[in-house]
User: Which sequence fits this backbone?
């Protein structure tokens, strides 16, 4: 059985992402959502082959998973999952949600955490509508974010789906992004305090993000 599985968990959230690398924006958001919605577990699931990102621009799965594991170890509610990186072919989030539904008891509520940007893009995803029906969504927004357009778009896509299952939560660390961190490493600027120290050390030791957006190898 997967090490994250807890049969007692009634509220489990998925935080999916490329996590190239995972940073404090992801962690602060997940912790805020965990507290607000009294979640038992947050599963950080680094994506395998994302259909919407070119394969050669993403670091190898093992490095992304290991950084996610290092970053989540200090929180008793956070778990890193290999579920998507071990799957062959393209990664579709709906398959992950279905797999979790098989693992957890039927009355476990599954939450899906995204940034508002990713939430907006989700409407172009494979089986987006099915996904929207299966999970409770929490979209992290910057303070002051105008969510009306997003709400309109959701309601237009899934007319018969109750809006009560969509939540917005303002988080303060939204200016941090993985692309900015990669650019900082490439140009020799500091990433200290933007990522956990263990992740910073991993990036240094394995010399990630040195070259112009190309694949990385930890060996
Ligand atoms: P990139 O800059 O390469 O797009 P990213 O920082 O957006 O990377 P991802 O791994 O693509 O990181 O994001 C995973 C999830 O976390 C997405 O749902 C995204 O919207 C969300 N997210 C990303 N950055 C933040 C942040 N600073 N605060 C809250 N959520 C974030
Ligand atoms: Mg992103």
Assistant:
């Amino acid at each position: 059985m997967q090490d994250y599985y807890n049969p007692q968990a009634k509220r489990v959230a998925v935080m999916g992402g490329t996590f190239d690398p995972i940073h404090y924006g992801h962690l602060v958001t997940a912790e805020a959502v965990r507290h607000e919605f009294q979640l038992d577990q947050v599963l950080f699931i680094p994506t395998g082959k994302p259909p919407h990102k070119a394969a050669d621009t993403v670091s190898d799965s093992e490095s992304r998973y290991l950084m996610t594991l290092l970053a989540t170890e200090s929180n008793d509610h956070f778990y890193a999952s290999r579920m998507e990186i071990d799957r062959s072919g393209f990664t579709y989030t709906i398959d992950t949600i279905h797999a979790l539904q098989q693992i957890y008891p039927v009355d476990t509520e599954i939450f899906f955490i995204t940034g508002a940007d990713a939430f907006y893009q989700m409407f172009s995803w494979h089986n987006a509508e099915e996904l929207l029906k299966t999970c409770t969504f929490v979209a992290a927004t910057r303070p002051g974010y105008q969510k009306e357009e997003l709400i309109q778009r959701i309601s237009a896509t899934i007319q018969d789906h109750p809006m009560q299952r969509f939540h917005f939560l303002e988080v303060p660390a939204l200016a941090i992004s993985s692309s900015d961190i990669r650019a900082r490493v490439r140009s020799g600027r500091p990433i200290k305090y933007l990522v956990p120290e263990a992740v910073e050390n991993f990036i240094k030791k394995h010399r990630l993000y040195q070259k112009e957006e190309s694949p990385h190898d930890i060996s």
